[in-house]
Amino acid sequence: METNSTEYRLEGDGTDIRALPKVSLHDHLDGGLRPQTIIELGDALGLAVPSSDAEALGDWFETQSNSGSLVEYLKTFDLTTAVMQTREGLTRVAREFVQDLGADGVVYGEIRWAPEQHLTAGLSLDEAVEAVQEGLEQGADDVRHLGGRIRTGQLITAMRHADRGLEIAELAVRHRDRGVVGFDIAGAEAGFPASKHRTAFDFLASKFLPVTVHAGEADGIESIKGAIVDGRALRLGHGVRLAEDLAIERQDDENTYVSLGQVAQWVRDREIALELSPSSNLQTGAIEAWGDELVDHPFDLLYQLGFRVTVNVDNRLQSATSLTRELALLSDAFGYDLEDLLTFQLNAASAAFLPLDDREELAEQIEDGFDRA
């Protein structure tokens, strides 16, 4: 299990990657619990947990998640959501989530989660959102008391296989001035296109609430097209299979010549951000068309072609990772330097669901932090 005590330094200049200011756009609340918290909350609920040892439980999550299948990967969330059904549980998890982000150098984080999955103990949708917001604010206070600085926003998620899209969209809009910054759909992608929630997306567009859509992870170009056309997505959750819309025409000793299909061309030209999650993409088989090692990930190809790539964790628990670790892994695989890491963070700042002035301020904060590195 990844811990914040692990040190990652950039090869070449030795920069401490954890100390760099970072932006996290794709980070699931129910995928970022501390194993010890699961044990304690599970015990209070009389819930059976695979292990009463935190380290062993963390290892269990990682092993279960290394299936090569998104469907199997998602089954691990049955346990995490089970301990997040009460106000106390949600608030604690959210508070610790922000503490862990702050310890990892994150200065702005968008936390996505599906309130409809947290109602079995009697909470209403609104009460669940309020409980999470309380925890996020407590966590931000904790970070400040330690001398740090962090801002967060909720991404309210609807489950794409369910039929509550409009209801969850209305929930997100109700809380837009109380911590919610955007909307998402998640869950099993293949067979559940964005068009299924078109009414919700129409409503969100009428209310000018920004949208990101999970697409291009367990399904291909048509899913990405649906996210853009039906969902009006400003960002793509993962979007890694956009690389299927690229064709390598020829290569020589110095260059690779690539042509872009219509969907890829649109995504690049409109600077629609890709919320890429390297370790998770390996675990779920999202990049199996290109290989099974990080160096096979099309991240670098997309980056070199000018797509707005961002680096994310997806689920820190299931991938035993952190944003620092993901950046270190990419740097090792593709030889990225400090300037590349800065580009990824500025891409994320530009794509954040914040007002323009706030995004510009965030970018300045990141540049200042990198200058001091």
UniProtKB/TrEMBL annotation:
Keyword Zinc: yes
GO terms classed as biological process: adenosine catabolic process; hypoxanthine salvage; inosine biosynthetic process
Pfam family of the protein (one): A_deaminase
EC number: 3.5.4.4
Record carries keyword Oxidoreductase: no
Span of domain Adenosine deaminase: 21-367
GO molecular function per UniProt: adenosine deaminase activity; metal ion binding
Keywords of the record: Hydrolase, Metal-binding, Zinc
InterPro entries named among the record's database cross-references: A_deaminase_dom, Ado/ade_deaminase, Metal_Hydrolase
One cellular component term from this protein's GO annotations in UniProt: cytosol
Listed cofactors: Zn(2+)
NCBIfam families on file: PRK09358.1-2
Family, per entry: Belongs to the metallo-dependent hydrolases superfamily. Adenosine and AMP deaminases family.
Name the record gives this protein: adenosine deaminase
Source organism per UniProt: Agromyces protaetiae
Species lineage: Bacteria, Bacillati, Actinomycetota, Actinomycetes, Micrococcales
